[in-house]
Amino acid sequence: MPDYRVLENQFQEILNLRRRPVAVSFPDDAPDSIEKFTGSEPSGCSFWRLAAQGRTFYTEPGDHYNCPVGSYTHKIELSADRAHELPDILGTMTNLGYLRMEEVPGIPVLPKAPRFIVYAPLADAAGMPDVVLFSAVPGKLMLLEEAAIRAGVGTQLPLLARPTCMAIPAAMAHGMVTSAGCIGNRVYTDIGDDELYSAIPGTALEKVAEALQTVVSANLALKEYHQGRRAQLSTV
Cβ distance 168 to 199 under 8 Å? Predict the structure, then answer.
């Protein structure tokens, strides 16, 4: 198994991350060595914030009921008394002009409902995560995107928009994806206005980390090259 502590340190150093990468896993059985989440959060992506702060825990589907949109992307069926909340929030979004109902079927969702979801800082991942979430400024995610392409795990998907949580099923199905985030996620996670997300399948993480070293060296050399051309050729 990869040394995820080493990988986290490598990504932190190169990408200058403000918050820790978050490993997300969907085990079939409740992990014995990990605490069960207790309490309440308003959204599924709120659990990303807790993991980025250093907590390791697992949730059950019911812990996600407060977020009907996140439950939808994770194929979690709301309880009967709360089933109305998804059409209610979708109706609000469409009335505001934020969303068109015909867009909903195109939103990526998990292939099956999870029994448990484990969230952890990457360094503390107990096994290979299904997806690792990064938040960083665009100039650093540029390097990550180029590394994914070099590693053969980039995708042809465009920059993802709302909802942010669809990045998880999209990455599991297609490879590394980048998301602009959404207003709900930014409120619930405190991500900066100048930051975006990338989601990388756990199986591709080592390949991306290795390619990232080459990409960084190449960018440093190319930066000098372009600075020289600018000094030579710019007249203004």
Answer: yes
Q: Environment class of residue 171 by beta-carbon count within 10 Å: exposed (0-12), middle (13-18) or buried (19+)?
A: buried
- Residue 204's contacts (CB-CB under 8 Å, 6 or more residues apart) are 148, 151, 153, 175, 176
Please state, in angstroms and rounded to a whole number, the distance separating the CA atoms of residues 233 and 218.
Answer: 22
Minimal CA–CA distance to 172: which of 120, 108, 118, 125?
A: 108
pTM exceeds cut of 0.85: yes
- What does the pLDDT look like over 187-223, one tens digit per residue? 999 999 999 999 999 999 999 999 999 999 999 999 9
Domain ranges of the chain: 4-233
Helix%, strand%, coil% for the chain, nearest 5: 50, 10, 40
Bridge partners, residue 22, by sequence? 121, 133
CA distance 48 to 199: 12
